[in-house]
Amino acid sequence: MASGLESAIDELLEQLRKEEQSVIDTKKMINKLSARLHRPEPYADVGEATIASISAIRSDQFYGQPLATVVREILMMRKSAGLGAAEIDEIFTLLKRGGFAFEGDDVDARRGVAISLAKNSVVFHRVPSGAWGLREWYPGLKDEQKQKRPRKKGDETVTAVAADEPDDGGDTAAA
Question: Which residues, other chains included, contact 143 with Cβ-Cβ below 8 Å and sequence gap of 6+?
């Protein structure tokens, strides 16, 4: 039964690719005609990846590659298809479809992907909806790692030492 469904999905994906190519050809023609009339081209996105490119992930596309590299590739595919950030479940499904080699069962693997993205905050960012995007998509974010955050210690307010500053022990009066 599953192979029949997979075959049907493959046929539909191929049909979709053909239909999308027809749309791209139509957009290119509209752009050419607009240019002849000295009008701006209405379709600047002609030739970019589409939603079908995400659906057309090969079964071995992510095999043997590092997780962060593959997730970044998936998110870039989504952005070029006009989609943006993705939930962990969708990222995990696309990783599996692309042949990424997970250890353990699906629950542990999905949790591992979420933990990896959370630890790699230099590249990935979790938006308020819970979906994950690339940090570079959100230029207004503050650099949390280098900021000094005030914290309370007793009655006085002390500034927390940033991760890249050495701790001198704090006793400057003894010198």
Answer: none
